Amino acid sequence: MSDPQASGQPERFEVRVTADSHFAWLRTRLAVERTMMAYMRTAVSLIAFGFTIFQFIDRVQDASGRDVRYPQASWYLALAMILCGIGAAVASLVEYRRLIHYMWSGGYAAIAGVHGERRTSSLYAITGVLILIGIFAFFAVLLSVE
User: Fold this and answer.
1) In Å, how far are 47, 98, 128, 137, 139 from 52, measured between CA atoms?
2) How many domains does the chain divide into?
3) Of 51, 66, 72, 83, which sees the most CB atoms within 10 A?
4) Is residue 1 part of a domain?
5) Would you say the pTM of this structure is higher than 0.70?
6) What is the CB neighbour count within 10 angstroms for residue 69?
7) Is 3 part of a structural domain of the chain?
8) Residue 25 structural domain
9) For every one of its 146 residues, what pLDDT tens digit does the chain have, with 9 covering 90 and above?
């Protein structure tokens, strides 16, 4: 993304540094954080349900001792759900980073009220750990085929 002021173009919106605009910026920042956390809940649910479904159906098939028509179906479903969870986490991280970068760009940085110091959110670390857990769950299911 290019900076509109550096290229001589006018900014898209007029930015006025007032208390109202500062609190609006804070509300928007918190809305972005809430959206990111909603993505994280979805990603955790997909990863956990995928792993749980595989474990549950695998144990039920072993306990019943009967032949199942599609014995690998739970394995495919689990892998697909875990991959969707990892994908949701990665997509949310990319979108979050893009929105935060936009909110700190141009005239909006003045509205933030903090000059020269950008505080990073713990959501980066949490998302990274969640992605690693998802990758671990994916390989745990992938390598469990007998």
Assistant:
1) 9, 33, 21, 10, 14
2) 1
3) 51
4) no
5) yes
6) 5
7) no
8) 19-142
9) 455 555 555 556 676 777 777 788 889 888 999 999 999 999 999 999 999 988 888 888 778 777 767 778 888 999 999 999 999 999 999 999 999 888 887 777 777 776 666 667 788 899 999 999 999 999 999 998 65
